[in-house]
Amino acid sequence: MSEVLVAAEGLARHYRLRGGRTLRALDGIDLGIGPRATLGLVGESGSGKSTLGRTLVGLQPPTLGRVRFEGRDAGATDPATLRRLRQQRQIIFQDPSGALNPRMTVGDTIVEHLRVQGWSRPEARARAAAVIERAGLQADFLPRYPHEISGGQRQRVVIARAISTDPAFIVADEPVSALDVSTRAQIMNLLRDLQAERGLTMLFISHDLSVVAHMCRDVAVMYLGRIVELAPRAALFRAPRHPYTAALLAAIPLLDPVRERARARTRLKGEPPDPSAVPRGCRFHPRCPRATDICLAVDPPTRALDPGHRFACHHPLDPA
Amino acid sequence: MNAPAPALPLLEVEGLSVAFGRALAVDGISFAVARGETLGLVGESGCGKSTTALALMRLLAGARIAGAARLGGDDLLALDEGAMRERRGADIAMIFQDPGTALHPMIRVGDQIVEALHAHLPLSEREARERARALLGKVGIAAPEERLAAYPHEMSGGMCQRVMIAMAIACSPRLLLADEPTTALDVTVQAQILDVLRDLVTETGMGVILITHDLGVVAGMTDRVAVMYAGRIVELAPTVTLFARPVHPYTSGLLDCIPRLDSGWDEPVPAIPGSVQGAMDLPGCRFAPRCPRASAACAEVPRLREIEPGHLVACWNAP
After folding, report:
1. Strand partners of residue A296
2. Is A267 in Cβ contact with B188 (below 8 Å)?
């Protein structure tokens, strides 16, 4: 692989449950994101996409494997490195209301964030004013409280806070999912502009493939703790190789009543299973229309046919 | 599909207004739903779409409701509570966004469906059980016999929503209100649930009001669409017409700002500037501050007018 800023190597995150069972939120993830690239991460609930995002920014340690940042193991423990890694890796959450302290003004929220990283108060104040403006809000938003501003404005505050430490890497975990459609586009455009202007590397997590198509050149599809397909967006959306990717695409309603009604109804059976009961063999086989005996027994290895396009399936779809 | 305003409506809503204290959440809306028709009610949070459904179900305690909603000769809004209780479930039923909280957590799902059946139908215990089992089969639940004994927490979100649908159709209502029925579900499960609803409408001929913010769902499921903004209907049209020729600036803005799966990847997504905050207090057109076509005329409230058969729009400056 060429230049990589953030990498996951054999990353796993397991949770011990009552009754001795194990929930495998991440179950063997290998991944590299190049500098200034945006990787999209899609999948249904329970697929592990948020856990991957949190692990990559260091909010939780992996059970197995490691995260590398700028080539070095990010599991370092000396305080100076830790502080630098925290400034360099930031995360934006889905629900901006939950991500902001309701008793703190917008300005204090950002100042506090910087103070923890060792900034002096005057520096932090100046910085807060600058980033809030860059996020599309006027300086008179600084003394306001979260409940006094709209959902879209709150997400702008969260974004301003995330960019305040000048990070190299941002995980955006469903950053527009809680917003109304008309506000969503504003925030998507802001994130795109920031990414281009600051040369940010991003992991953009979303359950909405249309949003991901507009934000990311490469897209990874997760299912039950694994990446089942990863490809440049054009290949992934137009010629998916994994049956799960194809099923996800087929389930998205088209914005055209005539074409939508003319579409064949091909539906997946059942629902994503519980990550504490991962099926043997290929984890997708109970829902897969192409499954055969080998899929029940053997976990398919990840193959890469074209450069940059990899998938884990015994019976991939033909490249259309 | 593509029916103009129904000639013999099943439900006819006229001048419905809902106020909570000083706040007017729904401001004099009128629409109709025909037998076998699915009407989409779309709009963003706070536009009044869910409030409209709750008002029709008479589930809004403490709100001031005005207007009329005629369903089979009765005005639902004028019935006393006893008479309304007889209509709920039997004539008009509702399913909600979050099936996890809409089901009772400590009662087996079979008993919940049986209770719904007993409320309106003179069935013996055995007949009701048999009927509950058949209903679960109808909404696509495998091994319905075993599922009758399950508690909601033992089932997935999609499965719970199937149970909710089974309960709602248990007494064959003439009108079903579906409030964001698939919003909480994963997209592959959403597709399954929408198939169930579509098949039920074809089979039973019930009318449906489908409330959603998802225009993709609207495109696939509805015959006509009413677009709401800040408590008012701003455009109402056959679904195919609305997607092909949206006329209200809010409708076209809404359609433009949804990222497409297959095109325009590298272009900025067109956004509607501003936000809906404060719109309820505006004297004239409530969309005017965000509207590219706004003019002096917008200081006065625009009424819905018919611009072609079945296509209504409330805008002074629509082409």
Report:
1. none
2. yes
- Determine, for residues A252 and B187 on separate chains, whether the beta-carbon distance falls below 8 Å: yes
* B109-120 vs B125-138: helix crossing angle, rounded to 10: 110
A268 to chain B: nearest residue by CA?
B188
Spatial strand order of the sheet with A72-73 comes to A22-33, A6-16, A64-69, A72-73
What's the token pair of residue A212?
């991901």
3-state secondary structure chain B: CCCCCCCCCCEEEEEEEEEECCEEEEEEEEEEECCCCEEEEECCCCCCHHHHHHHHCCCCCCCEEEEEEEECCEECCCCCHHHHHHHECCCEEEECCCHHHHCCCCCCHHHHHHHHHHHHCCCCHHHHHHHHHHHHHHCCCCCHHHHCCCCHHHCCHHHHHHHHHHHHCCCCCCEEEEECCCCCCCHHHHHHHHHHHHHHHHHHCCEEEEEECCHHHHHHHCCEEEEEECCEEEEEEEHHHHHHCCCCHHHHHHHHCCCCCCCCCCCCCCCCCCCCCCHHHCCCCCCHHHCCCCCHHHHCCCCCEEEECCEEECCCCCC
The pLDDT value recorded for residue B273 is 87
What is the C-alpha to C-alpha distance for residues A40 and A205, in angstroms, rounded to an integer? 6
Mutate to test the interface with B, among A149, A182, A248 (most CBs of B within 10 A): A182
List the structure tokens of B53.
Answer: 């459904």
The lowest-confidence range among A80-84, A129-133, B69-73 is: A80-84
What average pLDDT does chain A have? Answer: 93
Which residues, 6+ apart, have CB-to-CB distance to A37 below 8 Å?
Answer: A5, A201, A202, A217, A218
Task: Please tell me which residue of chain B has the smallest CA distance to A151.
Answer: B275
Contact A166, A1 (CB under 8 A): no
Q: B219 vs A186: CB contact, 8 Å cut-off? A: no
What ipTM was reported for this prediction? 0.86
> pTM here?
0.90
**Cβ pairs bridging A and B (under 8 Å):** 126
User: In terms of DSSP bridges, do strands A22-33 and A6-16 run parallel, antiparallel, or are they unpaired?
Assistant: antiparallel
Nearest CA in chain B to A274: B156
Mean of the per-residue pLDDT values for chain B? 92
pLDDT, residue A320, reads 65
d(CA B64, CA B166): 32
* Residue A186 tokens, joined: 């504003």
Structure confidence at residue A182 (pLDDT) = 83
The predicted pLDDT at position B183 comes to 87
pLDDT of residue A302: 95
Q: At A94, is the pLDDT very low, low, confident or very high (cuts 50, 70, 90)?
A: confident
B187 and A183 within 8 Å at the Cβ level: the answer is no
